[in-house]
Design goal:
single chain; 276 residues; alpha/beta; 6-stranded parallel beta sheet; 12 strands; 43% helix
Length: 276
């Protein structure tokens, strides 16, 4: 890729980040539109991620931020969108006047993934959400808005209750030991926990009978949980639809145009198949 002093630089920042398909997505869209830009990966291990991200505004025109730095990304910004403030985390930073404005495009990405897995009508859908970390925040905001009946299951039921109290006061909260029992009545299960990254296994599920199971991860990080869900009779869906949809909103924030999501999704599927 040819670059010059005028080339705008974008990147995805996280820990881990080597697996990220975001460069494939964004560099493909940059090429489609002929922009003088490039998109990189930045592996950031830091206990002062907010400061590190703030400093990156001198070099980068925009950033995508993934786990575990989404809350730090919000603190690194001089300004933030209402969506980012509602979620309490940011996954997209846009440089404006030398400082970051924080956005959260994960809510839109999650909505796209839910519609792809469950159809158009989400109101009163019984959703069992696994996890109460940073990845769950956008999902909870989206599900609360949609009118879904939400249960949050987490290793720490206290953490789940605190998150529900902040973002979805009517949600039910339980421990992981309740997942098998509660999955019997769920219309859909959403896994937001980084089980694959941590080497943990999916708790036992009731027979799925073809109901959807959505993992917000993709590739090797989601392979184990999706296989376990499929073996229990659930219909598995990975997080690629969410990844591409949230990326499209970020791309629009940076460049002012809407990219070809279907093309990017095909490229991601091909890459995962080639790497399998």
């Amino acid at each position: 890729m040819n670059t010059s002093r005028e080339t705008k630089i974008y990147a995805v920042v996280g820990d881990p980040v080597a697996h990220s398909l975001s460069p494939l997505i964004h560099n493909g869209w940059i090429a489609d539109h002929g922009f003088d830009a490039r998109y990189d990966r930045v592996h950031l291990q830091s206990d002062k991620a907010g400061d590190d991200l703030r400093a990156m505004a001198t070099t980068y025109s925009g950033l995508n931020v993934t786990l575990p730095h989404k809350i730090a990304a919000l603190s690194a910004a001089a300004n933030s969108s209402p969506e980012a403030r509602t979620v309490g985390a940011a996954n997209t930073l846009v440089r404006e006047d030398g400082a970051w404005t924080a956005h959260n495009t994960d809510v839109a990405g999650f909505e796209a993934a839910m519609h792809a897995a469950c159809g158009d009508e989400l109101r009163n859908l019984r959703v069992l959400l696994i996890g109460a970390g940073g990845a769950a925040r956008a999902a909870i905001v989206s599900l609360n808005r949609s009118g879904a009946k939400l249960t949050i299951a987490n290793r720490s039921a206290l953490n789940a209750a605190a998150l529900a109290n902040e973002l979805a006061p009517h949600a039910r909260t339980v421990g992981l030991e309740d997942i098998e029992r509660l999955s019997a009545d769920a219309d859909v299960i959403v896994n937001s926990a980084s089980l694959g990254h941590a080497g943990a296994s999916l708790p036992s599920l009731s027979p799925g009978a073809g109901r959807p199971f959505l993992d917000l991860s993709y590739g090797k990080a989601a392979a184990g949980t999706l296989a376990a869900a499929a073996n229990a009779g659930w219909a598995p869906h990975d997080g690629l639809t969410m990844l591409v949809a949230q990326a499209a909103v970020a791309f629009h924030l940076w460049f002012g145009v809407w990219p070809d999501q279907a093309k990017a999704l095909r490229a991601c599927r091909s890459k995962l198949q080639a790497d399998a």
